Amino acid sequence: MISEELLNAKINEAKAYVTKKLQVTPELGIILGSGLGNLAELVQDPIVIPYQEIPHFPVSTVQGHSGKLITGTLSGRPVMVLQGRFHYYEGYEMHEVTFPVRLMQAMGIKGLLVTNAAGGINMEYEPGDLILIQDHINLMGSNPLRGANLSSLGPRFPDLSDSYNTGWRQKALALMGDMDLKPLQGVYAGVSGPSYETPAEIRYLRTIGADLVGMSTVPEVIVANHGGMKVLGISCVTNMAAGIQARKLSHAEVIETTQRVGETFVSFVQKLIQLLD
Ligand code: HPA
Q1: 65-119 residue pLDDT tens
Q2: Domain range annotation of the chain
Q3: Which residues does a 6 A CB cutoff place in the pocket of ligand 1?
Q4: Cα–Cα separations (whole angstroms), residue 168 to 92, 125, 174, 195, 199
Q5: Which residues carry out catalysis?
Q6: b or e along 108-133 (b: 16 or more beta carbons within 10 Å of the residue's beta carbon)?
Q7: 271 CA distance to ligand 1 centroid (A)?
Q8: Average pLDDT estimate for 200-224
Q9: Considering only CA atoms, which of 81, 140, 131 is closest in space to residue 257?
Q10: Cβ 64 vs Cβ 34: under 8 Å
């Protein structure tokens, strides 16, 4: 845990550093999940800041996650893109995992698009599907808001009943229909990892109402909601979850699938961000 004063000071130093370099005022934050980083290359007039340059920014360690903050315009909108995220399983504290979201909040960003790679639990899904996150179940064993509440940043007991904004989801579903993508939504179970789940855990997750499982996103979405941001989440089903598919789960398969659907993902997101107001 970290004191309120210290976290605020760190956020302000990071903000001052990033603000100095900016040429646009970003309106929308985008967090790119494993293997989905290619979108960052389409940002126009990009200002690229490696994470290690930003004061107090953690540095990501996992293969397939390069760490850069990119600002510029995407489909005509000023954005801040995070290519590479911090996972709880890497050993970061929750306030580190969610630091980039606090930075976005401090910079006045009001909307967040989060993306991730996930295992499919719902049998209607197939690897390669893009699924809109409808809601989540936090099974990470922690909550990023634990500890003294930063009342300047949000309420002690934030409401999470529309954590993945309904209006934005409706727009995204309509777009999926227009693009001949299956307009599917699902509940994302966030687990700590890093081991994949056991088949018994997947049966349990299905029973409690999960359609997708992954090791990220939940902390960032909780903090974004705490900070009053609207959120939209997209999961790329990279594999069917443990016990469903015959082959073993591997990070290589996760990356392979995200690369296979990369183009679709990019054109979906490019169109989508024009709709998120
Ligand atoms: N489980 C957890 N996280 C994941 C998976 C999975 O099957 N696939 C991609 N991320």
Answers
A1: 458 999 999 999 999 999 988 999 989 999 999 999 999 999 999 999 999 999 9
A2: 4-272
A3: 117-119, 196-197, 213-215, 238-239, 241, 249, 254
A4: 30, 22, 10, 33, 33
A5: 34, 65, 87, 89-90, 117, 215-216, 239, 251
A6: ebbbbbbbbbbbbbbeebebbbbbbb
A7: 26
A8: 98
A9: 131
A10: yes
Instruction: Give distance in angstroms: CA of 190 to centre of ligand 1.
Output: 10
Ligand 1 atom index nearest CA of 239: 8
Q: What is the pLDDT of residues 103-116, one digit of tens each?
A: 999 999 999 999 99
Atom from ligand 1 closest to the CA of residue 197: 1
Ligand 1 centroid to residue 268 C-alpha, Å:
22
Q: Write the residue with the smallest CA distance to atom 3 of ligand 1.
A: 214
Q: Over pLDDT 90: what percentage of the chain? A: 74
Task: Write down the pLDDT at residue 64.
Answer: 46
What number is the average pLDDT over the span 175-198? Answer: 96
Instruction: Write the CA distances from 46 to 33, 39, 42, 43, 80, integer angstroms.
Output: 19, 12, 9, 6, 10
Under 8 Å between Cβ of 101 and 49: no
User: pTM higher than 0.90 for the full model?
Assistant: yes
Average pLDDT score over residue span 193-219: 97
Cα separation, 118 vs 240, in Å, equals 9
* Nearest residue by C-alpha to atom 7 in ligand 1: 119
Pocket test for ligand 1, best of 90, 211, 215, 258 (most atoms within 8 A of CB): 215
Nearest atom in ligand 1 to the alpha carbon of residue 240 is 7
Domain made up of 4-272: CATH architecture: 3-Layer(aba) Sandwich (3.40)
Map tokens 């934050």 to a residue.
29
Mean pLDDT, rounded, for 177-204:
96
